[in-house]
Known about the structure:
Helix content of chain B is 46%, strand content 20%. In chain B, helix 1 (14-29) packs antiparallel against helix 10. Chain B has helices at residues 14-29, 47-56, 66-69, 88-96, 98-108, 149-157, 167-176, 186-191, 217-221, 225-259, 270-275, 278-287, 292-300; strands at residues 2-6, 35-39, 61-65, 112-118, 122-127, 142-145, 161-164, 181-184, 200-208, 211-216, 263-266. Chain C has one domain (56-287, 296-423). Chain C contains 22 helices and no strands. At the A-C interface, helix 1, helix 2, helix 3 and helix 4 of A face helix 1, helix 2, helix 3, helix 4 and helix 13 of C.
Amino acid sequence: MRDGTSLGGLEAMIFQLFDRIARLCVAIAGIGLVGLIVIFGWLVFGRYVLNDTPTWVEQVALLLVVWITFLGGAAGVWTRSHLSVDFIRESLPPLIRTPLRWVCAIGVLVFGLFLAWQGGVLAASTWPRVVPMIGISEGYRAVPMAICGACTVLFSLFHLYELTKGGQN
Amino acid sequence: KEWRTWAIHPDDYPNVVALNAFAEEVSAKTEGRVEPSVYANGILGAQPDAIEQVRSGALAVGNFNMGPMGEIVPATNVLSLPFIFRDEDQMHTAMDGEIGQQFSDALAEQGLVALSWFDGGSRSFYNTKRPIVTPADMEGLKFRVMNNDLYVQMVDELGGNATPMAYGEVYQSLKTGVIDGAENNYPSFDSSNHFEVAKYYSVTNHLIIPECICVSTTVWDDLDDTDKAIVKEAAMNAATIQRDLWAERSEASRAEVEAAGVEINEVSDPAAFQSAMEPIYARFISENPDLEQLIRDIQAVE
Amino acid sequence: MGLSLLFGMFALGLICGMPVAFALGLATVAGFLYEGLPLFIGFQRVLSGISIFSLLAIPFFIFAGELMMQGGIAARLVRLASSAVGSVRGGLGVVNVASSMLFGGISGSAVADTSALGSILMPVMKEKGYDADYAVNVTVTSSVAGVVIPPSHNMILYAVAAGGISVSKLFIAGIIPGVLMCLCLGIVAYWIAVKRGYPAETFPGWKYLGVATVVALPGLMTAVIIVGGVLSGVMTVTESGAFGAIWAVLVTVFVYRELTWAGFKTAVTSAVRTTSLVMLLVATASSFSYLLTLYRVPDLLATAVTGMSDNPLVILLMLNLILLALGMIMDMAALILICTPIFLPVVVGIGMDPIQFGVVLMMNLGLGLCTPPVGACLFVGCVVGGIRIDQAVRTIWPFYLAILAALMLVTYVPAFSMFLPGLME
Ligand code: NA
Ligand code: NA
């Protein structure tokens, strides 16, 4: 997903590992997206052809969307494709710009920590609750948030490391 | 102390009017020690979220419907059984007495102090195709139900096709024929504008689900006995106000939808609908044997 | 104090270049900590902000758009459009506005319009020599028509919040203002195209146009399935979105035979990327909105406004300004639910019909969807168009003015919104 050819040794290994993680996130989210479309096809088929609406589709779809969002979101941190307003920072003199880059990377890291932590808390607290109509634990809705948080932390640690080497943020 | 109060309904709804009365009374009688403030329209989240917020003490009070409460307090699923109450009067008698106390105890285990019981209205079926007089009239019709297995089973046992769907989708889906009908009480049938597209309302009164004013246990435990008594009394008064306003509102909404050309009919044989529910009761009791006595007790209430 | 902290943190996040979704989230965390509220509630809002049924249409339209692009549908549609109106200078800009008008009537979501039409039209516009910022500006601003032209989930939300307003009348009321808005945007799109000297092609002849039409037909069926599915009542908007995507796969694999496995994977990957960026933003914005609601920000604003003047014209103007400001920083659905009960009594008090206010509200908040710092359509448009937000914003103002002109007409001339519903009585 990113070009890491300029790196060497351990750096390159970590880079490869993180890049694989990001790819895996996108792959799982992609399967979720295709699944989303398939089950909606089944929904309409069931309603008209079988006259028996599959009642689980809506709830499964809502769950899938959360997984797609957070797994895709995690990969977005690695590829730096999230929407941001960086023209303000880039128009400032380097003396201010460099610390702002640090603040930015640390801010992302901190929010990643909160996502991981609170995702875990939510998953644990909603675990006994059951998603209506599909009977699986409500906790599964919070799990991808924790995964996204953990990935965000890892990826932004790497970005911070790149900053110490004077790289782009 | 500010008591943030959650309500799903808009400001002019009986529930919110009653909650505002509750807020005023509590604030006056505690001389400002407790200041409830009502956040109406569900702006702080949907009910499952709001329940978590009240349990954690972030919100102090919630006006919760017992339907979705079943996910958190399984005993309250009894109230979602179709035809568990004969009519609203019987529901009031049951909930204001020993039976209501049993539900309060179950809620208390999950961090919610139930102070008094509101009317949630009695729900009936409405649809775009034909009056429902006997269960056979349900055959083949697609009805939107709330997300709860019991409601899905209810429609399926009556011969309809249960279709869980988000509330906001219902109007458009009725209009375009994705679904043929839904079920609700008069005030919601009226305020959701579903009566514009569904012209047959059949009085089945299949669900009479009460609502509670619930205070967070953590917030409640901070009160001294005087204030607890004041809050409890204010909640009881609010329930009286809400029930009166609710009855008025139901009547007004009924008149409103009739004037708009909705055909309202009574069912010919209510017992036929009730007996169709027997498999649901049997399944529910076999899955929750400890709740059987509660069901029998409710049915025994005069 | 809490409010200054909230906005201060958000502003800091934006200035240092944090992803907007993360800046919103971090500011919200700060607000929760400051208020001593349990943090998990903020993150519960993040989750429930995207567990909303009507949002499901978004990934479907994005995916369908990606498939149409990868599998050659988009290229054929654009060949058809440009052979039809390519001889008009800036024709593709006008085509863009016109397709938003038609497509917006189907999807009911401005964000879905931006993603679907943007992914089809923007690459072609760029290929034909249009600047990327122009392509983004046209797509983003014209997608706002989708909020006003029926059907619209947001209008149903408003009808419910306002209590007892006829949804069908509200839908009908949106038609003329939506068309008016597109008219204003079309004029601006043409004017800028002329000013920038975008190419006008020679008309290729009727025969070529005919062939282009036939070739594009199976692709056009995607739109027919979506429109037909909804209008005939066979499917909900969300379901028809899913079927649009399924149809797109079938056509590109079996009819055009252009969709390769690699192309399919690319489509899935891009759709995941765009979906997750948008939804993550919706998620954290919903948590941010929770605090604004707790601080009763809209109430404070309402009090400020009515205290300033009792002239209806001035109050309306002030309301427009406040709604625009709120639309810039908050999520549309949340704003509808919060603002309706607060502002509706004010406007009814000065003699405005609740239906007209509904349309005005949609247009105001819709414009907010394409303004920074929190503008979902603008963001999606920039992602799809591959440019930075500041590049788009620098040249977008004439389009804002077009929407504002339409907004002023609808605000001060009731007939625009009230004429059609009046015919129903
Ligand atoms: Na629309
Ligand atoms: Na905005």
